[in-house]
Amino acid sequence: MGLVSLQNVELNSEMRAKQESEAASTTNNLKTSSYNYFIRYNDTNFFGYNFLYRSILRIPADAFPFVDQFLRGLSSKSEGLGEVNSNPLRLPPQWLEALKEVHFVIDKSIDELSLIKFHYFRSLYANNSLSLIVLPTLWCNLACPYCFEFKKPIFMKSEVEDALINWIEKSFKNKRYVHIAWFGGEPLLAKKVIFRLTKRLQEFCNSIGANYGASLTTNGYFLDQKFIEAIPSLSIKQVQVTMDGDKADHDALKRKRNGEGSFDRVFQNIVTLCESVSDCNLLLRINCGDDNYNGIERLLERFPPIVKARASVFFRWIWANKASGYREFSARRQGTGTESFQGLTKLEVAAKALGWHIYNSYNYNVGYCEVDFLDHYAIGPDGNVFLCTHTYENSESIGYLLEGRNVTRSNTIGKITRWYTVNPFNDAECVICQLLPICCGGCRKARMEGGRSCIEEKKSLDLFVRSLVEERLIPAAMA
Known about the structure:
Outer Surface Protein A, domain 3, 4-stranded mixed sheet
């Protein structure tokens, strides 16, 4: 849903009295949504964002007090607190219709928590899609000190390729959508595996009438002209490349194993991709830490217009992890304040000013991450099958492709069952949180282990909503 605006309507005493008499019965069956959030955008406009419906409402600043009073009064009335505000302001009919259109005001019969549960479980148990993260190798040509993976020189062998295809052909004939996310390690170290498996997967999808699509996450070093030209035939619709700041910072972190930097080649490959392929989305992920934060804006300035026109950019903090020895790369206190999201927001503002489009998955997601769906698996190069991409240790494996059709092991059925049945609706804090519709309870693995992983944006909601609004609206709408 796009932008809806309230038009300026003068609310004088005569109009108010007339509308109170005409609309007295209009709101009897209405209530305020529990998921509205408002920010003052500038001197002339407020914006409202609804976390459940992903809808946006622009309200002139001089009209906002009336809208706010109306919504508060309606909320009190729907909660049986009519004495608190027994005579709430009646709004112009076109305003009320606008509020209803964006679901800031809803029918009393709607149980929004039940609606969230419905969408959550419908998405989780939808059975028309197969989504696989395939790692053709766990090896990488770079030695990033923060990487969460334990690098192993393991490459997918032909027998694992055969076992993967056999498993898919026998177990997933009823699917209508098949998506493969090429991951690693560095997947482009195993291009032949990608080409071979793609051909067989495309043939399988054609035979059952399913749609096939793929994405690629790469460090960009081997994203050469020849591979770029093959992207359409590989059905790759999205490429994510990670950079670590401008040249000096990137080369200090994303070093080749011989100590040489990788910036120049990766940068040129990104430009070539944007110049050569028009129907493939480029996501540029920029990792942020104390060592490279102040140089990131220089990187954004360096790219030519063709990249800004074709790519979306997003920023993520570098986190300590087991594989990196729990080294801290960032105090996460950069930017305008002490909250981590504020530091990322500062970079987003700089990127927008330079003409970049910001990628914000929360405007569109239906799950916290890709593992929040039935029939999603990660396939290691040795044939081990995983539920989560956080680790590829054998102890986390739920099955093994080379063991035959019944990939999942009998002793992992309990884990698999719990994985797909754990949910946030038994968590008292989650069910009253306004962000539940977009975070979906956070990391499933953390919840499995008895924890809760609230998204960092929760601590900076004004900035978060501003980011969501600006990512959705064209510049002309922000005037």
